[in-house]
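Field notebook, page 396. I keep forgetting to write these up properly, so this time I am using the form the group agreed on. The chain and the ligand, magnesium ion, are recorded exactly as supplied. Prediction of the bound pose follows.
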Amino acid sequence: MGSPIAEALGGGRPAGAPGAEAPVAQERGVAAGTPPRITRLSSRLLTVPLLRSWGAEAPENHVIVTEIHTDDGGVGHGFSWTPTIGPQAVKALLDFDVAPFITGLEAKAETVWDQLWKRLHEAGGGGLTTIAMAGVDLALWDLQARRAGTSVTGLLGQRQESVEVYGSGVNLHYSLEELVTQAERWVAAGHQAVKIKVGKPDIREDAERVAAVRKVLGPDRKLMVDANQRWDLPTTFRALDVLGGFGLEWLEEPLRADDLWAYRRLRRHSPVPIALGENLHTIYRFRDFIEAGAVDIIQPNIVRVGGITPFRRIVELARTHSIRVLPHVLPELSGQLALTMAEPALVEDVEDASFEQLGVLNSPSPVRVSNSRLTLAGRPGLGFDFCARSSEHGRP
Ligand SMILES: [Mg+2]
């Protein structure tokens, strides 16, 4: 698994293999065991038009591309991401508050994360602060993996040869016909699990759409529904009465993500497993939901929680409670982390919305998806090489 990466780095043998050459850092003359120090953080904003609109309120995504330089000449490449809210705010936090603070620190992702979280905390324990922190954390993990002559997945320890991908769509605004056609594309692509949006003003319309998709899928493929926080508790119970008979794998975010009290009541009575987490930003909030018995499946977004460092801590917390962890969107990042997880995860692939499909990568994607299974492509570090300017992305 390490061979293509070592070749990409000019090594020829995977790091750690018998007879492997010294890692990159030693080739540069850096003493073993002495981490380099951060000399510079830079960021730039890429605004990416979506190929399939997520609705009037989300016509595009924003990627805040980050670069961290170190005193041994190393460069780490990372990113933050937000579909709608706050790209300029994230960039301003990185440029004005984060960059001066991390300059001079040892380039170690986990120690930088803890210091930076403490530093930014008066601006909020999670949210824009943690989204900005992901740009630092991802760049540092990329740097550490490159120094070790491997991928981030390799550095963290690959536990799965491949992971399953499920088809997902931001499709509440699709007509019934468009929705059915999308479900047919997912089946043709080999997906064994798919997820659609619910939350129409009339629950009978949701039922009609779920029934139509279930018919396309047949009885054996998994079907999930996501209400994106559109309902209150009574509406959710009514929806479960109507939708509960369609063999749903989970119901996602029916209620406002903050409402722990309501989720606890819901889960006590729901016949369908409850999934949430894309709008929880810290390990403390995940702990609160898990210990309250308010959730069956958690879906942390690796960027929104602040990067790989806190994501891994959340994964271990969930494991101790037998709660499944399914990372939220960003398949090219989530997939790399899912390959390191002890329990098999499902990776969410929103149709035509991967970075590669959006045309923002200069190089091939760090992951491959074939017949609904995701594998590593064998690139060093995190493997993201973003376009230089917004004008370069997008399909004709
Ligand atoms: Mg969702």
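OBSERVATIONS:
- The domain at 155-392 is CATH 3.20.20.120 (TIM Barrel).
- The pocket of magnesium ion is lined by residues 226, 228, 252-253, 278 (CB under 6 Å).
FOLLOW-UP: compare against the apo run.
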